[in-house]
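R.M. (postdoc): so does anyone remember the format we settled on? I'll just put the structure tokens first.
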């Protein structure tokens, strides 16, 4: 079965190359006394291959940044030791220069245009429910069982509220009806504003004609908190092999399905390491998710095995959590209207490290099968060699 890669309107998050430039030839830095050690620069240092796990990064929230604040907090752990205790501005400039040089010029231009696009929306759109934008109120957003599991923060606590109907797919009750109602009303209010002002908006992915990117009209802070405080603890337990413990950016959006909206979603993988999919409502029939196994890029179009086939029927307020590389799609919504909240959680560190890996058998089912087959053939070859040697030495 062929697939489409669901691409977001935002750029995929990346980390800079590990090797960074050459020395500056020992030139003096203006403003420093003789013998003083200049702050590290882009050209004179390399990022660490392994993070400093004991270092507590600075908080970059509230700053006017080109990239997500979580990107900088995550990347800071990989800075050279003599830079870790510099002022925040020094570290920020250092990391920004790395990130900007890593991005091609046309990508930097596109990022700037998207930033201006967001600012235009935020400056003109009148928000309906302010609590969706700034401080998240967990007791108003989440059901008690979910909050209890997050507070306990253990694998057993998570498993107590979850079902795993198919390997790597977790379902659980998550959202309060009140939150679903507010989000539905906010999105409808935004769509009304778009229609009345004839504002041309970017849809959340290339596969959708309806829906909206929640980050674009101001919900980035709320969604970052959702990922960092509620999804990352779970992903750390169940998806560590794909960067689940180091998620540092996201793309949050809603999709709208119905006869007069998008009807279905083709077979695809997400542009994420971990994906959260929560049904918000309303009344509908159909629209089941179908899953068909986890694959790396090389094996993404390979055959589905019978044990990988799983279908899931949406329930308002309930969530599905899975790897972004878990192939899936959505069947046609045959009646009514359905809206889903999706949060694509990403790890810039994992994405960079993946460039240098060839074996993904820890999470790609096809790689795992190929590895087992190679091991089987190796054992069989050793057995054959031993039998041959025994035959040669027999009297």
């Amino acid at each position: 079965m062929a697939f489409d890669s669901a691409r977001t309107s935002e750029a995929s998050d990346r980390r800079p190359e590990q090797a960074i430039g050459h020395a500056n030839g020992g030139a003096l830095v203006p403003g420093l006394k003789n013998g003083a050690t200049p702050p590290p620069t882009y050209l004179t240092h390399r990022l660490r291959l392994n993070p400093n796990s004991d270092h507590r990064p600075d908080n970059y929230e509230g700053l006017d940044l080109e990239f997500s604040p979580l990107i900088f907090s995550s990347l800071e752990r990989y800075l050279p030791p003599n830079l870790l205790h510099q002022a925040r501005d020094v570290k920020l400039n250092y990391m920004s220069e790395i990130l900007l040089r890593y991005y091609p010029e046309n990508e930097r231009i596109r990022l700037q245009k998207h930033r201006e696009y967001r600012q235009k929306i935020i400056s003109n759109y009148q928000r309906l429910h302010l609590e969706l934008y700034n401080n998240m109120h967990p007791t108003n957003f989440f059901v008690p069982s979910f909050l209890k599991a997050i507070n306990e923060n253990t694998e057993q606590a998570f498993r107590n509220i979850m079902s795993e109907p198919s390997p790597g797919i977790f379902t659980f009750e998550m959202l309060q009806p009140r939150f679903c109602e507010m989000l539905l009303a906010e999105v409808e209010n935004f769509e009304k504003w778009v229609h009345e002002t004839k504002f041309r908006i970017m849809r959340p992915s290339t596969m959708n004609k309806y829906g909206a990117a929640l980050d674009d009209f101001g919900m980035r802070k709320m969604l970052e908190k959702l990922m960092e405080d509620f999804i990352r603890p779970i992903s750390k337990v169940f998806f560590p092999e794909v960067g689940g413990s180091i998620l540092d950016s996201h793309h949050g959006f809603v999709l709208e399905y119905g006869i007069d909206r998008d009807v279905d979603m083709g077979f695809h993988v997400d542009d994420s390491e971990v994906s959260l999919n929560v049904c918000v409502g309303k009344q509908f029939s159909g629209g089941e998710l179908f899953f068909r196994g986890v694959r790396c890029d090389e094996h993404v179009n390979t055959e589905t095995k019978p044990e990988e086939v799983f279908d899931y029927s949406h329930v308002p307020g309930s969530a599905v959590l899975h790897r972004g590389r878990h192939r899936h799609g959505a069947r046609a919504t045959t009646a009514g209207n359905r809206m889903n909240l999706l949060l694509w959680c990403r790890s810039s560190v994992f994405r960079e490290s993946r460039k240098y890996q060839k074996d993904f058998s820890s999470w790609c089912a096809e790689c795992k099968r190929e590895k087992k087959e190679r091991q089987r053939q190796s054992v069989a070859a050793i057995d054959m060699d031993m039998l041959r040697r025994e035959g040669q030495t027999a009297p």
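R.M.: ...and that's the designed sequence above, right after the tokens. Also worth knowing: DSSP finds ten helices and 13 strands in the chain. The radius of gyration is 24 Å.
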